[in-house]
Amino acid sequence: MLAGVTVLALSVLSLSAVAEPAGIPALTMVTEEGGEQKYTVTIQILALMTALTFLPAALMMMTSFTRIIISFSILRQALGLQQTPSNQILIGLSLFLTIFIMTPVLEEANRTAIQPYLDETLAPKEALEKASLPFRDFMLAQTREDDLNLFVRISGKTYETLEDVSFWVLMPAFVTSELKTAFQIGFILFIPFLIIDMVVASVLMAMGMMMLSPMIISLPFKIMLFVLVDGWALIIGTLAASFGI
Predict the structure, then answer these.
(1) What is the dihedral of CA 101, 106, 109, 115, to 10 degrees?
(2) 64-78 pLDDT, tens per residue?
(3) Strands (E), the chain
(4) Is-contact 173 150, C-beta < 8 A?
(5) In this predicted structure, what is the pLDDT of residue 36?
(6) Which residues contact 182 (CB under 8 A, 6 or more apart)?
(7) What is the pLDDT, as a whole number, of residue 2?
(8) What is the C-alpha separation between 79 and 101, in angstroms, rounded?
(9) What would the DSSP string read from start to end of 164-187?
(10) Any long-range contacts for 153-161 (C-beta under 8 Å, 24+ apart)?
């Protein structure tokens, strides 16, 4: 009986080995007549999944997200609210406002690169180059000349025109400019709330109530002022206008 079971098991293994289809090749590269090389869909999907891991960094370094989230964070500190709105709300609001501001850039990239690539009228490398052009124009428009010159000097290269500047030189220059602009906006946001804190602290000191924290008294006044002037609409409108929207 044991011999029969052994023979049956060996038969099943041999049949499964024969019936098992050949594996998908990991890499297949086809060279066309013009010298261009194309990869299989398997490698294209692998490259796409790898590129998606850089999406958060691209979101912060190539869009308006950095300026918006820093401005909102400074606004929350100026109001004296530590956890309201929460980080999730601020990030979500910044993300949707970023999509709103970047819509013309995304539409241009979709029209000139993504759709032609999906229609198989554009090679992957050419599609990537064309998709980067709208983002390049956006970053150039928002980058200060001093910051751009700084990274050009650090790179040790010379460029005749702005169009010749390397994409990898432009990205850190753009982020540096965005940080400067965000902190300038944050400074302006702090001024009215700082005045309220100073007035409240002076009144409490004049009344001899030194043991009472001025932050407790000034907080409702700052919230009331922010609501009365329609602060959220002003901040969001100003941020959008700072990008030329």
Answers:
(1) -160
(2) 899 999 999 999 888
(3) 29-31, 37-39
(4) yes
(5) 57
(6) 66, 67, 70, 71, 74
(7) 38
(8) 26
(9) GS-HHHHHHHHHHHHHHHHHHHHH
(10) none
Per-residue pLDDT of 93-143, as tens digits, reads 999 999 999 899 988 888 888 788 777 787 777 887 888 888 888 888 888
Residue carrying structure tokens 């090389």: 37
pLDDT of residue 109: 87
Mean pLDDT, the chain, whole residue set? 78
> What pLDDT is attached to residue 10?
37
Per-residue tokens: 212: 């009472």
CA 152 from chain centre, in angstroms, equals: 23
Asked whether 125 and 34 are in contact (CB, 8 A), the reply is no
Interior angle at CA 83, CA 195 and CA 89, nearest 5 = 110
- Measured in degrees and rounded to the nearest 5, phi and psi for residue 30 equal -115, 125
The residue type found at 115 is Q
Q: Tell me the pairing of strands 37-39 and 29-31.
A: antiparallel
Widest Cα–Cα separation across the chain? 103
Residue among 168, 138, 136, 133 nearest 152 (CA): 168
Asked if 174 and 139 count as a contact pair (C-beta separation under 8 A), the reply is yes
Q: What is residue 24's predicted lDDT score, i.e. its pLDDT? A: 46
Measured CA distances, 160 to 51, 152, 163 (Å): 31, 11, 8
